[in-house]
Design goal:
Blueprint (H helix, E strand, L loop, with lengths): L3 E5 L7 H13 L4 E6 L12 E4 L6 H11 L4 E5 L1 H9 L5 E6 L11 H9 L6 E4 L2 H10 L7 E3 L6 H8 L5 H7 L4 E5 L8 H14 L4 E5 L5 H10 L6 E4 L6 H6 L2 E4 L8 H8 L4 E4 L5 H6 L11 E3 L4 E3 L3 H5 L4 H11 L1 H17 L2 H14 L8 H11 L2 E5 L3 H10 L7 E4 L8 E2 L2 E5 L10 E5 L6 H10 L5 E2 L5
Parallel strand pairs: 1-2, 1-4, 2-3, 4-5, 5-6, 6-7, 8-9, 8-11, 9-10, 11-12, 12-14, 15-16, 15-19, 16-18, 19-20
Antiparallel strand pairs: 13-14, 17-18
Helix pairs in contact: 8-14
Amino acid sequence: MIRNIAILVHGLWSGGAERIAGLLSKELAKTYNVYLFLFGARNIVYDYGGTIVDVGAGRTYDKNIEKYKKKYHIDCAISFLANMNLLNVMTKDVERVIVSVRCIQSVYEPSYAMDTAVIRNLYQYVDTIVACAEGVRFDLLHNYQVPGNMTKTIYNFIDKEEIVRKSQEELPDEAQVFLQGADFFLNVGRLHPQKNQRRLILQFSRFHAANPQVKLLILGSGESYDDLTAYIEEQGLAEFIRILPFTKNPFAYMKRAKALILSSRYEGLPNVVLEAMTLACPVIATDCLSGPRELLMGELDYEKKLGALEICDRGILVCDERTEDDGTTQYMARAMEMIYSSETMVKGFKDNSLKYMEEYTNQRILNQWIDVVNECVNVDKISTRAKEEQRLQSAKHIVIYGAGMVGKEVFRQLSSRYKISCFVISERKEGEDECLGIPIYGIAELAYSPDDTLVVIGVGRNHLYGVFNKLREYNYTQITFPYLD
């Protein structure tokens, strides 16, 4: 029987996943003893339930997580985001482990090769993987060969009452001065290439040529601010497009906008679409992996090819093609024109969105989480450490990546039980021929077949991403992490 649940997340001060973790803890705390394992208990701004446990930072937090799981007799541990998912799996003992995947992993490659290695090597020890959307689940099944029976899709919690309440506030003076009562389209999101506001600006310029009275507001902060501002100037639209900083109340804008436009290249489950639908704000969105096609048309099959422009029950989907970036095609601009010129279409979107959101309840989402927690009860109990020991026992060649302090400690603790074939490093320098009596090879010199070789990671966390990129480059995909006493 599940009594004590740990929820592992970096913090409760910013981020969509962190907000969802806080809301989940609040709901689960009504039924279970909930402990929130955080990297720091400072600057908490999101609602939460249960007890905060500060697991610290630095090299000891994995040990602290292991310690606190035992101290609080954790029966089930739920983690959010890649780093916490890794730590949750590595510290797995007899408790049930659930990891929540919040985005499309495959679009990050090759820069996130470490996360890919974690999914392929360690997620096999997870009891359940919860994807925040069917598109995320599709990515795990088709690009990482995660078994389908290990995965569930659970959508995000959303506070509809707060959204409606905040939507009734007045727009800030800066926005009112800019708009001067004009109709406007709205984009909400980080200023980042992922969100692809540059495409939106170009497509709006095409629409604006025939509709000069309409404006565009972009709400967000981020690294692309200077680039986007310069692009707006280049298009001659400084009087008609304004970027305003991130705000905790985008809902007042959504309530008044002609439509919310999501121009992203990829998403997990875009909460901003759910928020807009709550306020009956029409939505135009790219058909990206993942989320929009699920929310706007109820299509869960990501192998199905959609048209370049799809008029859905609850909004308009446009293709995520590079031709939209250079203006060769103008489907997004055409969608703006449809929204702007057809009151009948807009009314249908509004009515259908409100009906959908009436049935979208936090209680239903909570029940799905509780089902996942309880499904884990009958799973055989075996720790990640024990399963990794089995891999070591069956490996033809065991090599340790890293010959520094961490690598040497890994060797000392493993060599009494297993034959270590060699150390491997990214690039061997002259004179680096052996360490502790066994040879050192550069990764390019390693002659063992990747199929027969298990690589034990023997470097500090600061070097992990570089190591995983090197291993990926040379096709070494069988990877394990050491358990140091």
